[in-house]
Design goal:
CATH superfamily: NAD(P)-binding Rossmann-like Domain
CATH architecture: 3-Layer(aba) Sandwich
CATH topology: Rossmann fold
Strand order of the largest sheet: 1-2
Order of helices and strands: EHEH
Largest sheet: 2 strands, parallel
Number of helices: 2
Shape: globular
Protein name: SDR family NAD(P)-dependent oxidoreductase
Structural class: alpha+beta
Keywords: Plasmid
Helix content: 25-40%
Pfam families: adh_short
InterPro entries: NAD(P)-bd_dom_sf (IPR036291), SDR_fam (IPR002347)
CATH class: Alpha Beta
Number of strands: 2
Length: 64
């Protein structure tokens, strides 16, 4: 995949298999990733996994 820095990518279902792989792909490619999923989906664990690397992580809980 060609790298295009500066994009903002929104990924729904981000804690699941394909969603998580896409988060990793775009984050390592230099994009800003907004990872969206349900509260009990494991999205916080995924964010902690990314936070252990070269990425910054900010968590916001949105109730609708």
């Amino acid at each position: 995949m060609k790298q295009q820095l500066g994009r903002v990518v929104v990924i729904t279902g981000a804690a699941g298999g394909i969603g998580r792989a896409l988060v990793d792909l775009f984050a390592t490619g230099g994009d800003t990733v907004v990872a969206v999923d349900l509260p009990d989906s494991g999205v916080l664990e995924m964010a902690r996994h990314l936070d252990g690397g070269q990425f910054t992580n900010e968590h916001k809980e949105i109730l609708t």
